[in-house]
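I am writing to request your help with a piece of structural work I have in hand. Here, with my thanks, is the record as I have it:
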Amino acid sequence: MIPSHFVAILIAISISMLVGTRYLKLQYWHHDSTPPAITKPAAQWQLVFNDEFEGDTLDTNKWTTAFPWGRAGANESELQYYAEDAFEFQNGIQRIRAEERSMAGYDYTSGIISSYSRFHLQYGYVEMRARMPKGQGFWPAFWLLPVTKDWPPEIDVFEMLGHETDTIYMTLHWLHESGQSQSVQGVHVGPDFNADFHTFAVDWSPGQIVWYIDDVERFRTTENVPDEPMYLLANLAVGGDWPGNPNETTSFPGYYEIDYIRVYQHSYGNHIWLPIVVNNP
């Protein structure tokens, strides 16, 4: 956390811009210091899915190591191939390893875990504890996609760029009636997320998504909240239009370290949001 003796400053900026064919509505929350705490709401929690990564191999009853459509990146500008062997396990930590290694026509390999066909939910509290990689071109993320394999919607619990390890991006993507995708995004500038482990979460309920970092609310939206089943993904991309490509300053291998991933069912008063759960060993 940023030292609490700093004066809290919150700057809220609403920006609308046209980026290529994508219309982006960006809400930027910049925290120069710790704001007054808005902590995770009181609730009764039921753990419905989790992986503590205590074993020495990936639990394939919970995860696959590719997108439903293959092992290439989510966009053509990414440089990595998602390899099955890009994972290390040590002391209850899963490490997704990105390295300079030729495979399937790509110059880099890295890893992705996806709960597609294993687990999905519609509403719930989704949380990860992790430490971020540092280096130009690294792009770790934790996100949700619809089981229909359509896009959007997309809920990004967080994304981070390896050359700015103090900045976390929290985003919702949806499809506008015009046929163009739109986004709303919060940006939190905090500590060096490469220096230690932190928790990242979303509380997804009907009509609202709230993002938390270390149990403190950092962003929320009520715009076009998805109301369909979605599955989990965690990946470490290399390169791409947004982070840029690795350069001479990038040290390989790079590691995205995950302590746990947990999903809860929660209730507020008389309202109970039940996730839709599928487990297919």
Remarks:
- The mean pLDDT is 85.
- The CA atoms of residues 148 and 276 lie 14 Å apart.
- The radius of gyration is 18 Å.
- DSSP finds no helices and 19 strands in the chain.
